[in-house]
């Protein structure tokens, strides 16, 4: 987000301002005028990103489970969206995106409960601070939403709520601060345009840890039921695709050329990964499937996310193709080789994709590489020179490893705590057989009248 | 009176209904059912994982007719639903003890 790649002096100044936009107060007392164009785009992008979760992700996941659990998945996504919103304005925003006393690992507490937010407050790109708060809120909503895919069909609803609340504060806010809020990774010059590390690596690593601790679904892997509604999966994936334009192009923080290019490369990666996934499946199973092609779409979108502000169109096609191949085989590796029931492949698609894109941008984002925009002239120690791609790769790898380490350790601890409070985070075997729709929510996804 | 239960392939329902209408059958009950016979189930593959589907979707027809109509009805169903491939289904013929039309209270063949 704060890694606006640019060559021109004017844009470089913009980057400087963005890097220092740490609160509602104007940095260095400089006057910033309201930019209606940027404001209009950021408001639109915010709506698009919320649309990714509600209903995009909810439908994508809902169609993949059995019909007796569809309502519980929709409920998880919806309730997480509501809960994450409140946590974000109470403590999340301040911890994730304001510098406070300038710590390198966590933001300040000065803006808890959005203290100091006014209608007049502007971010450095000339859009209102309120828009920045809610734009970033939609990211804090979808990230725990992604983890839902790991625990469907067998978790207690109270555990979902408690886990989400703690996870946002302990994992999401720190990593968001490290990468976007002015923390140590941002200072080291890490490139994560829209959340390969902050969103996808954290969600993927946490999902894998949680799925491992929760245990496999009854009947896994031999006697599982197939997705109950592939059409719903496709509708959800399509909404995610459209919403992702807000996610990635919105992360430019302005209605500018960077946003336009981000939108183009996002689309190309998604299209390429979809086709590649479809062809692999066609070759391996004999038939091209709908669930396969749309899973490829999501892999392509997750993988381009960290790179979408830096790579060119041809770089995006390479990223998309890599996403299709690597994420496809990651699904089999996690489910069969590791034997972990990460039910809807959160780690294989989002985690692996996000990390892959975060590493690939080191090379494909370099100036002149297949239309790469030139990525690396920032960081506090920068003397104005560009990082070489290997130097950048080391920073990127550090970022991924740190985010994964925190995600795994913190998820482990949080699940232990939540388990102690709820008497085990898993529902009884009877309730699992009955289906969570009836057992947890007393409703049915479908009823014959 | 006979109750004729026919389990057929779902996509053959329209043809069977046409054939039955042609020979003068005036009512039937249709249900979507699942089951397996010699055809067994099949496997589906999503994201590289195989899922075994044991029960295949079928359509069940229930038709109550007088004794003289039973053979014609069975022939019509066989004629219209047969594909010659495994999984075409089965027909069961069951004697009916009594039939009642709820609206009028008529009984026996009058009622069907």
- Low-confidence runs of at least 5 consecutive residues of chain B: none
What is the succession of H and E elements of chain B?
EHEEEEHE
- Main sheet specs of chain A: none
Number of strands of chain B: 6
**Helix/strand order of chain A:** HHHHHHHHHHHHHHH
C-alpha-based Rg of chain A, rounded:
21 Å
Specify the overall morphology of chain B: elongated
The shape of chain A, in one word, is globular
User: How much of the residues of chain A is beta strand, in percent?
Assistant: under 5%
Oligomeric assembly: heterodimer
How much is the average pLDDT of chain B? 93
What's the main sheet of chain B like? 4 strands, antiparallel
Radius of gyration of chain B: 17 Å
Instruction: Classify the helix fraction of chain B into a percent range.
Output: 10-25%
Strand content of chain B is 35-45%
If you had to describe this structure to a student in words, what would you say it looks like?
- The complex is a heterodimer of chains A (449) and B (112).
- By secondary structure, chain A is mainly α.
- In chain A, 65% of the residues lie in helices and 0% in strands.
- Chain A has helices at 9-19, 36-64, 70-97, 129-151, 157-181, 184-188, 196-214, 230-249, 257-285, 290-304, 313-337, 346-364, 389-422, 429-434, 436-441.
- The model of chain A is unreliable at 1-23 (pLDDT under 50).
- With 112 residues, chain B is an alpha+beta fold.
- Chain B has helices spanning 13-22, 67-81, and strands spanning 2-8, 29-35, 42-46, 49-53, 56-65, 89-95.
- In chain B, the strands form two sheets. A four-stranded antiparallel beta sheet of chain B has the order 2-5-1-6, covered by helices on one side. A two-stranded antiparallel ribbon of chain B has the order 3-4.
- In chain B, strand 3 (42-46) and strand 4 form a beta hairpin.
- The longest helix of chain B has 15 residues, at 67-81.
- Classes of the chains: A mainly alpha (449), B alpha+beta (112).
- The A-B interface holds A 221-227, 281, 284-285, 287, 289, 291-292, 295, 328, 331-332, 335, 345 and B 44-49, 51-53.
């Amino acid at each position: 987000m704060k890694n606006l790649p640019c060559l021109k002096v004017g844009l470089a100044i913009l980057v400087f301002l963005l890097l220092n936009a740490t609160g509602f107060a104007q940095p260095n007392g400089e006057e910033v005028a309201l930019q209606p164009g940027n404001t209009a785009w950021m408001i639109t992008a915010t709506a698009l990103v919320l649309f990714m979760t509600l209903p995009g992700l909810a439908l994508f996941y809902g169609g993949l489970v059995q019909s007796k659990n569809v309502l519980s998945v929709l409920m998880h996504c919806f309730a997480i969206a509501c809960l994450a919103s409140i946590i974000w304005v109470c403590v999340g925003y301040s911890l994730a995106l304001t510098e406070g006393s300038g710590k390198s690992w966590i933001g300040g507490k000065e803006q808890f409960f959005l203290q100091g937010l006014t209608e007049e407050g502007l971010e450095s790109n000339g859009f209102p601070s309120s828009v920045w708060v809610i734009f970033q809120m939609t990211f804090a909503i979808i990230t725990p939403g992604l983890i839902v895919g790991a625990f469907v069909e067998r978790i207690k609803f109270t555990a979902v709520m408690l886990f989400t609340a703690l996870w946002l504060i302990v994992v999401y806010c720190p990593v968001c601060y490290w990468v976007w809020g002015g923390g140590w990774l941002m200072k080291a010059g890490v490139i994560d345009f829209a959340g390969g590390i902050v969103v996808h690596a954290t969600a993927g690593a946490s999902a894998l840890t949680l799925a491992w601790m929760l245990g496999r679904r009854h009947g896994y892997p031999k006697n599982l039921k197939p997705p109950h509604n592939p059409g719903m999966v496709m509708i959800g994936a399509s909404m995610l695709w459209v919403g992702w334009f807000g996610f990635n192009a919105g992360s430019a923080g302005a209605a500018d050329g960077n946003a336009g290019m981000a939108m183009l490369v996002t689309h190309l990666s998604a299209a390429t990964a979809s086709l590649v996934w479809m062809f692999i499946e066609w070759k391996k199973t004999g038939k091209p499937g709908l669930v396969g092609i749309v899973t490829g779409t999501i892999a392509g979108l997750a993988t381009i996310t960290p790179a979408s502000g830096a790579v060119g169109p041809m770089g995006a096609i390479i990223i998309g193709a890599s996403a299709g191949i690597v994420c496809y085989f990651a699904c089999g590796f996690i489910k069969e080789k590791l034997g972990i029931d990460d039910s809807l492949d959160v780690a294989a698609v989002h985690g692996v994709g996000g990390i892959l894109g975060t590493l690939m941008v080191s090379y494909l984002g370099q100036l002149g590489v297949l239309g790469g925009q030139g990525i690396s002239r920032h960081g506090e120690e920068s003397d104005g020179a560009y990082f070489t791609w290997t130097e950048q790769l080391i920073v990127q790898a550090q970022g991924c490893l740190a985010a994964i380490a925190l995600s795994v350790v913190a998820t482990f601890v949080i699940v232990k705590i939540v388990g102690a409070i709820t008497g085990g985070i898993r529902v009884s075997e009877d309730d699992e057989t009955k289906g969570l729709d009836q057992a947890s929510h007393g409703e049915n996804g479908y009823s014959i009248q | 009176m006979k109750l004729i239960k026919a389990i057929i392939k779902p996509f053959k329902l329209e043809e069977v209904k046409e054939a039955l209408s042609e020979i003068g059958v005036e009512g039937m009950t249709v249900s979507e059912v699942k089951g397996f016979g010699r055809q067994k189930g099949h496997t589906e593959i999503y994201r590289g994982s195989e899922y075994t589907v044991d029960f295949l979707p079928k359509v069940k027809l229930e038709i109550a007719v007088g004794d003289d109509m039973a053979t014609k009805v069975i022939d019509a169903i066989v004629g219209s639903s047969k594909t010659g491939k495994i999984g075409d289904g089965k027909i069961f013929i069951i004697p009916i003890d009594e039939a009642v039309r709820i609206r009028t209270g008529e009984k026996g063949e009058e009622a069907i």
